[in-house]
Amino acid sequence: MNNYSKQREAILDVMKENLVHPTAEEIYQLVLEKEPQISKSTVYRNINILVELGEIKKLNMTAGPDRYDYLYKEHSHAICEKCGNIFDFYYDFNKDEISKELLKQIRNDMDINSITIYGICEDCKSNNKNREELKWKK
Q1: Helical ranges in the chain per DSSP H
Q2: Which of 7, 21, 27, 115 lies at a CB distance of 3.0 to 4.6 Å from 76, suitable for a disulfide?
Q3: Per the confidence metrics, is the pTM higher than 0.90?
Q4: pLDDT, position 2
Q5: What is the pLDDT of residues 77-130, one digit of tens each?
């Protein structure tokens, strides 16, 4: 196993152990604990290689740094627009039907490889509700 394969394997191990959609910096810090000699540029370069190989997925965030996901099973994502937390969910979308509908509506043939839904998570809803209740009590 060459050096680059060993480094990619260390990154994959970290991703398999941490299914919380870490940032590149978080991945680097976790790999550094296992491989103290590894450089940040090596980790970042290998993250990009793993994305290109389809081993991990880059989640483009509207706010904050991009996050990464280990593709252990096909799933979709729900992202909280307030706190940025990402939640996996499993639903069997008929991607062929969605592609046909997009082609019909916007005349573009789209490759549907993931579906991301945005909203407000329960924690953020609860926190906002609690703040509203405090305002009314004053």
Answers
A1: 3-17, 24-34, 40-53, 95-106, 122-137
A2: 115
A3: no
A4: 45
A5: 898 988 888 888 888 888 888 888 888 888 877 777 778 889 999 999 888 766
In angstroms, the Cα distances linking 72 to 8, 18, 60, 124, 132 are 16, 12, 19, 28, 40
Measured between alpha carbons, how far is 64 from 125 in angstroms, rounded to an integer? Answer: 20
User: How does DSSP classify residue 82?
Assistant: T
Identify the helix (H) or strand (E) that includes residue 116: strand 116-119
Packing angle of the helix pair 24-34, 40-53 (nearest 10 deg): 110
Q: With bands split at pLDDT 50, 70 and 90, how would you rate the model's confidence at 15? A: very high
Instruction: Let me know: does 48 contact 11? Beta carbons within 8 Å.
Output: no
Read off the tokens for 42.
């090596």
